[in-house]
Amino acid sequence: MQHQHRLLILYATQTGNALDAAERLAREAERRSCPNKLLSLHDYDPNLLPQEEAVIFVVSTTGQGDAPDSMKVFWRFLLQRNLSNHWLKGVHYTVFGLGDSGYQKYNFVAKKLDKRLMDLGGTTILERGLGDDQHPSGYEGTLDPWMSSLWRMLNTIKPEFLPNGPDVVIQDTVLIDQPKVQITYHNIENIESHFSTASDFTSPDILRSARSMHPGNSSSDKSGHPDCFLKMVKNLPLTKPNFGKDVRHFEFEFFSDAVQYDTGDVLEILPGQDSAAVDAFIRRCNLDPDSLITASPREMDDCNGHGSRMPVKLKTFVELTMDVASASPRRYFFEARCCYELFCNS
């Protein structure tokens, strides 16, 4: 049986940017007929790393030089003293980091991962790339030229990965991704039979249910629930109106039981949305705001516990999980839209 070559793309993300970058790498590899596998570091068995031929790591730096939560187990494994300096002999790798040069430990996670992989005997495909949020184009200002070099170097080192060369690509219209999220509509009568009392529909329960359906909450936290709820009681600007960044002082009071926290822990803020903007969005999409829905990542099934979520009204889901008024679409939104425009005009 002929050996199947595969490019492995591993990512660790806290806010979703590293996942976006990793998905773009996977799409570009696919366009070049390069078989690839995309996985979160949280879902990858590090014992298998010496068996890989070529690996791309895409990792972000959070807080004060901290690794994303999904990377911590993998990183502890790499720090084991019993791993020799030949452990990754024959494994080709490269690292792309996402960070902000405004912080002292800029891209610290990518830098230390690169060094550790080299110490363990790995061979670099290409010098690490460091994406910077301060760049006018964000991390993509570095990712674009870095990817061009990546395919050329990979073709030199592992030509079997790119059978048609680094520059022969399949048209984007052939490789439009499937939707990441699956929406399930529920019959109101069936729902009432499962949640028969008024206490089943309390505000915290609805909030938890809606937020747990957000795709970003489906990785390492299997419960989908936040550790606690806080209520904002003070919001003061610390910078002048025309300053480059909007820095603020927030104060909160605990809405539920208090929890311990450390510097670098993530605080998710749920701002209120303009009701008129939410209504306009729903009308524009021709949706029924009173429909009862659940949302889950397409690759997950009900055995993971996502099928037991309490459905919420579509309008509630939009209000609590989507930014319909001020969000900046990511690059892939425009790539996909361009392809759909081509479909409509062909």
List keywords for this structure.
single chain, 346 residues, alpha/beta, Rossmann fold, 3 domains, 6-stranded parallel β-sheet, 3-stranded antiparallel β-sheet, 11 strands, FAD, oxidoreductase
Provide structural commentary.
The protein has 346 residues and is α/β, with parallel strands linked by helices. The protein folds into three domains: 7-170, Rossmann fold (3-Layer(aba) Sandwich); 172-216 and 271-346, no CATH class; 227-267, no CATH class. The protein has helices at residues 17-31, 72-78, 108-119, 140-157, 188-194, 203-212, 275-284, 314-321, 331-345; strands at residues 7-12, 36-40, 54-60, 92-99, 123-124, 129-132, 181-186, 230-237, 248-254, 292-297, 312-313. The strands form three sheets. Strands 1, 2, 3, 4, 5 and 6 form a six-stranded parallel beta sheet that branches. α6 (203-212) crosses α8. The longest helix has 18 residues, at 140-157. Residues 7-151 form the Flavodoxin-like domain. InterPro entries: CysJ-like_FAD-binding, Flavdoxin-like, Flavodoxin/NO_synth, Flavoprotein-like_sf, NADPH_Cyt_P450_Rdtase_alpha, Riboflavin_synthase-like_b-brl. Its cofactor is FAD; FMN. Keywords: Cytoplasm, FAD, Flavoprotein, FMN, NADP, Oxidoreductase.
